[in-house]
Design a protein that fits this description.
Number of strands: 0
Oligomer: single chain
Largest sheet: none
Helix content: over 70%
Strand content: under 5%
Distance between the termini: 42 Å
């Protein structure tokens, strides 16, 4: 199946699932409107996700050293300091150091899925799950969070602001997807929907 058909199919799934999440997921419907530090204890889960995300991007770069693009290397280089940026934002707010806590199981499950995507899946699937899907959701998530945090009067929002731009770029990788046969596309559809489901469950768990 040619690239254009793959892109049309997968991008439609992600867009559909993301729109559902924006209407029903607590991350989008119940994000704290206040500037109270205690409302952001959930960021401990985001911190651990961010920390592992950098590590899994490094693993992907090492696993695919001969790809004909620089996305794997540049993605890691741009993400590797982000967890520490969030950690500083949290401690500056007066929140506990997230290194003293663990992520919840829903976040652990999503982290594991992302490690699987870079350690045992094809280059195409890795791009579709880590970049197109996960980073596509992240872009929407950070745009939503940044707008509310800014309205609430927070300052020093560099961590949140940088993701509003970076994640849009990181999710724009469809031009790198190579032609897939029908079976490969079926697998991609299955795994992309699974990734969307895992993201939805994880984001909702942060606001239980």
């Amino acid at each position: 199946m040619v690239q254009s058909q793959v892109v049309e199919t997968i991008s439609a799934i992600i867009a559909e699932e993301l729109e559902k999440a924006k209407k029903s997921n607590p991350f989008f419907t119940r994000f704290p409107e206040s500037a109270k530090p205690q409302d952001f204890k959930w960021c401990v889960h985001l911190y651990h996700l961010s920390k592992h995300f950098a590590e899994l991007l490094k693993l992907r770069w090492e696993r695919f050293p001969d790809v004909d693009h620089d996305v794997f290397s540049s993605h890691y280089e741009e993400e590797k300091d982000h967890a520490e940026m969030l950690r500083k934002w949290m401690t500056d707010l007066g929140l506990d150091d997230p290194e003293q806590s663990f992520p919840n199981y829903e976040t652990e499950d999503f982290i594991s899925l992302q490690y699987r995507a870079v350690s045992s899946m094809s280059e195409n699937l890795s791009l579709l799950l880590v970049n197109s899907t996960a980073e596509g959701y992240a872009h929407a998530m950070y745009l939503h969070a940044y707008a509310i945090l800014k309205r609430a009067g927070f300052t020093n929002l560099e961590y949140w602001e940088v993701h509003c731009e970076a994640d849009e770029e990181h999710s724009n990788v469809y031009h790198l997807i190579k032609d897939m046969n029908d079976q490969e596309l079926k697998e991609a559809e299955h795994l992309v929907r699974y990734t969307c489901r895992s993201l939805d469950i994880m984001l909702a768990s942060w606001f239980k």
